[in-house]
Write a structure and sequence with these properties.
- By secondary structure, the chain is an alpha+beta fold.
- The protein has one domain: Lipocalin (Beta Barrel).
- It has 2 helices and 8 strands.
């Protein structure tokens, strides 16, 4: 009986050791809310609503104007924008796919993977920091 216990324990230990954590190390970012966005060009404010809509407003000195609006999907490391009719620089239905990465403790950045609207991709990567 003892001969069976030791090999059985070794099998159990080996099985437990082979079970890895399913988390790939990527933080789960909550992007819903308003963010200050800085890229290589002008600064902007991005607002992501829980209903899957977004609005990006460019800041030019004291003037703020709507740059891009539409819907988005976010799966934890990929953000896909789809522009709406009211978008200023992108045509209705143009989409862009961006890789999302954490920056610091509470910020995140997006970098273009594929983009149909060249104006939206200018100045990437964009770093998002919480609005104060």
């Amino acid at each position: 009986m003892r001969r069976l216990i030791v090999p059985a324990l070794l099998v159990v230990v080996a099985l437990l050791a082979s079970c890895g954590d399913d988390d790939d190390g990527a933080p789960s970012l909550d992007i819903v809310g308003s963010w200050n966005v800085a890229g290589q060009g002008e600064d902007a404010v991005a607002r992501y609503a829980a209903d899957g809509t977004y609005e990006i407003r460019a800041l030019d000195g004291a003037t703020e104007y709507a740059f891009d609006t539409g819907t988005y999907t976010y799966d934890g490391d990929t953000l896909v924008y789809t522009s709406a009719v009211l978008s200023r620089f992108c045509r209705d239905g143009q989409s862009g796919t961006y890789k999302v990465e954490a920056v610091g403790e509470d910020g995140w950045s997006v970098d273009v993977v594929e983009e149909e609207c060249g104006m939206r991709a200018q100045g990437t990567p964009f770093v998002h920091q919480p609005q104060s």
